[in-house]
User: Which sequence fits this backbone?
């Protein structure tokens, strides 16, 4: 057996290659990376406690390499092939997101690493959406889109060969990895030439901007890459200084002592010139830059409270007042780690301290976790939310209209369709967090 390369290493190298390509395609993304790195450094310098906490939780090392990206594909076979590609990188489909709830004709999953070590090394995630042609109302347009998609292959022939080789060998040699990464990158590259005449683009665009974005190009260009910041409020306020146009409002929960889930902001999509197949020149806006701040993963009970509070808060007009208002509403969400644990709102990873280690024999599952923490035997670190919240606001809006039940059934049906296209079921994100917490408790002798 020749020397083989681990999935973690392939993912790490691929995410670097993707970041390099996106920086050269969208120079503003490079500036965003600089801004985020500056802010993260400043936060760590002024908060030695946070530095320590991240280091203890094995999170410091991954911070500067942490990204998520997003892509959209047009047909089931494309999704199934992406699954094979990402699996080689140790990334598996987690979660199902029905974006039709937000009026976007796609449904999605996130390919990401799932085990503790892989996440600590590099948690690269790719939010991957599949177009739902059946949501195009005009039957002629639907057929036209389907036939354009049928005629394309977004993967290079060599990429497909390498996938087969991997299946036969069960691994890649160093040489094969060197080939695989640039071959896969081709699929995510931006193309200035569309595969269709301008009129077709306009017809599809008129139906939904995203349909044109998926159908009219040779590949599934990466539409954004997102670094993780430790202070999104600061990034938002500095963006203008760095020459970027931020969106008005930071999405998600407000700033808190113990950050929860995910807060996100972005700079607006670029208008890029495109040459159409009939030689007409026009523009397309798809690609942008995004920043995220990640917090603790919530249990289903915590998530339900989050959803309810976000619904109660409604939409804001400007960021300052919206954040103030959110803070007020979210005062009902406990903001200290003991309350989060006691009320079972969030997931934690437990570790024995050196003192706890020396008393390991005395620890039993009947022990009170809070007591052990107070005694200095046990540490509890937040388990970071590794997933997405693309439609939380829209989903809540729907349930507020009293359409929740129909939508849930509708969603269940489309989820099966999605999983059929994918060729496997998606992993339930809550069970991953729950298992991570349980594993850590077992390691401490608490289960
Ligand atoms: C969906 C992107 C979702 C996020 O951060 O929630 C996403 C898309 O527009 O492709 O990346
Ligand atoms: Ni995103």
Assistant:
């Amino acid at each position: 057996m020749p020397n083989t390369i681990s999935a973690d290493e392939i993912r790490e190298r691929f995410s670097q290659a993707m970041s390099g390509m996106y920086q050269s395609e969208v120079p503003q993304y490079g500036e965003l990376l600089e801004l985020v790195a500056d802010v993260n450094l400043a936060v760590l310098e002024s908060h030695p406690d946070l530095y320590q906490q991240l280091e203890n939780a094995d999170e410091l090392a991954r911070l500067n390499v942490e990204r998520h990206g997003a892509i959209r594909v047009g047909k089931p076979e494309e999704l199934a092939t992406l699954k094979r590609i990402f699996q080689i990188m140790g990334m598996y489909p987690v979660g199902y997101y029905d974006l039709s709830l937000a009026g976007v004709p796609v449904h999605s999953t996130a390919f990401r690493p799932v085990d503790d070590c892989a996440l600590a090394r590099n948690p690269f995630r790719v939010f991957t959406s599949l177009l739902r042609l059946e949501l195009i109302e005009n039957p002629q347009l639907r057929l036209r889109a389907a036939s354009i998609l049928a005629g394309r292959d977004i993967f290079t022939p060599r990429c497909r060969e390498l996938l087969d080789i991997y299946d036969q060998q069960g691994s890649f040699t160093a040489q094969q990895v060197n080939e695989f990464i640039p071959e896969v990158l081709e699929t995510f590259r931006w193309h200035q030439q569309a595969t269709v005449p301008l009129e077709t683009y306009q017809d599809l665009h008129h139906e939904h901007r995203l349909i044109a974005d998926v159908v009219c190009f040779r590949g599934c260009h990466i539409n954004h890459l997102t670094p993780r910041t430790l202070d999104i409020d600061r990034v938002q306020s500095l963006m203008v200084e760095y020459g970027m146009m931020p969106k008005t409002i930071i999405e998600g929960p407000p700033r808190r002592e113990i950050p929860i889930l995910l807060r996100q902001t972005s700079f607006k999509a670029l208008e890029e010139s495109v040459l159409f197949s009939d030689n007409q020149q026009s523009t397309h806006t798809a690609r942008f830059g995004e920043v995220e701040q990640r917090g603790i993963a919530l249990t289903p009970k915590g998530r339900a409270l989050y959803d309810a509070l976000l619904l109660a808060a409604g939409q804001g007009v400007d960021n300052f007042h919206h954040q103030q208002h959110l803070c007020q509403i979210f005062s009902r969400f406990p903001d200290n780690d003991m309350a989060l644990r006691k009320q079972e709102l969030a997931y934690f990873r437990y570790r024995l301290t050196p003192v706890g280690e020396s008393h390991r024999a005395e620890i039993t599952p009947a022990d009170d976790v809070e007591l052990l923490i107070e005694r200095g035997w046990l540490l509890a670190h937040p388990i970071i939310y590794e997933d997405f919240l693309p439609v939380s606001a829209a989903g809540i809006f729907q349930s507020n209209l009293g359409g929740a039940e129909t939508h849930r059934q509708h969603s269940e049906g489309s989820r099966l369709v999605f999983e059929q296209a994918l060729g496997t079921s998606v992993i339930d994100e809550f069970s991953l967090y729950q298992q991570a917490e349980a594993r850590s408790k077992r390691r401490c002798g608490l289960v």
Q: What stands out?
A: The radius of gyration is 23 Å. DSSP finds 20 helices and eleven strands in the chain. Residues 402-407 have pLDDT under 50 and may be disordered.
